[in-house]
Amino acid sequence: MIDKKHIGKNLGSFRATPEAGQLRFFAKAIGETNPIYFDASAARDAGHPNLPLPPTFLFSLEFEQPSTGWRAELGIEPSRILHGEQQFTYHRMAYAGDTLQYESRIADIYDKKNGALDFIVRETRVTNQKGEHVADLRSVIVQRNG
After folding, report:
1. Which terminus of the chain has fewer Cβ atoms in its 10 Å neighbourhood, N or C?
2. Residue 125's domain is classified under what CATH number?
């Protein structure tokens, strides 16, 4: 079982700058058809300064970052984990070219089925280059034990 002493642990921070090409590719992959996600002129005509990030793209940027070793420190075994849940709370739009700051921490650790499953809840706050709160991300990793 994963030790609950890690609840509250700061997982570090990183910066990411989404590029227009990444956003177009992601929008196409999720089946988005709104031209604001593909054409900067259409985005500006709709009142945006640049291509907006498609829904859930913030998770994609977070997922691309190399691990800082926190999974090993907690005793998480990659071959035993499942993606349990992902949640987004948006506070403002983010755009191609923004510098986004991610700050993550372990919000909770609990088990189910008499310890057969461990749940690790990670919360991430995302701000832009102006320090404005863009979004809160919440993810749950499930580890099968035994």
Report:
1. C
2. 3.10.129.10
